[in-house]
Amino acid sequence: MRIDPQQDYFALFGLPRRFELDGAALESAFHNLQAEVHPDRHAHLPEAEQRRAMQWATWVNEAFRTLRKPLPRAIYLLELAGVDAGLETNTAMSPAFLMEQMEWREAVEEARAAGEADELEHLRQRLVHHGREMLAGLTEAFDRRGDLDAAAESVRRMMFIEKLQEEIDDALEALES
Amino acid sequence: MAYSEKVLDHYENPRNVGSFGKDEEGVATGMVGAPACGDVMKLQIKVGKDGVIEDAKFKTYGCGSAIASSSLVTEWVKGKTINQALEIKNTEIAEELALPPVKIHCSILAEDAIKAAVADYKKKHEA
J domain: which residues (chain A) (predicted)? Predict the structure, then answer.
């Protein structure tokens, strides 16, 4: 087996270490590796090697989950670069951004209380659009400007967007049931 | 996760929820957010001419612990001078509410909200 646990997740899948990612290439590299480390292929080997194959399988899965979605991928890229995204500690977001978040949350809360599924759907559309813009900004910061501080700031903001997304989905689900 | 009785009390009967008018005399606002959980907290203080906090209001979108932490600090800051309010530590908030380790960041958020509100007050009044 040619897996080296010292390498980073991008190297593991033979992908360039950058934010923009070829999803199809990741997918196919993942399936190839998965087949390689599958426990069934190692059933005839001594127990120690079976156990190692199992660990590799877990590691490959973890690597895939990390790179597949933009936000965990961005956090991982910052980690690799030794930049702390400050998700637990950095509470000093721009007041304008936080005010906007508060307004979003109020709008979701009101629409949910009033049972306005259409309004929630409308908010969701706006949020999707907003999320795409932020993603473009993140790509720009990572891959074109190499500005990791700006990337970390974007990541912190996107955590709020993600939470908002969950709140809207929750509200829509509650109204449907 | 089980919330402590004090958290539940503040969560079910939050004190001082709401907002002051933006242009009300002596009002300052602190906005903070916790990226890890997407919580957003707004804390407003109303400061008298003598520098004592007369009233406080909050609005928080977050978990029970975040709501309880902000509700508690609105009670604690009342009657304190702005500089005394700055001495409130997140560890005291966490202790009072018996927050588990994974919720300590909620108390940090509340402490940072006080600091942000006082900073806003100073910016407006000491310039």
Answer: 8-80
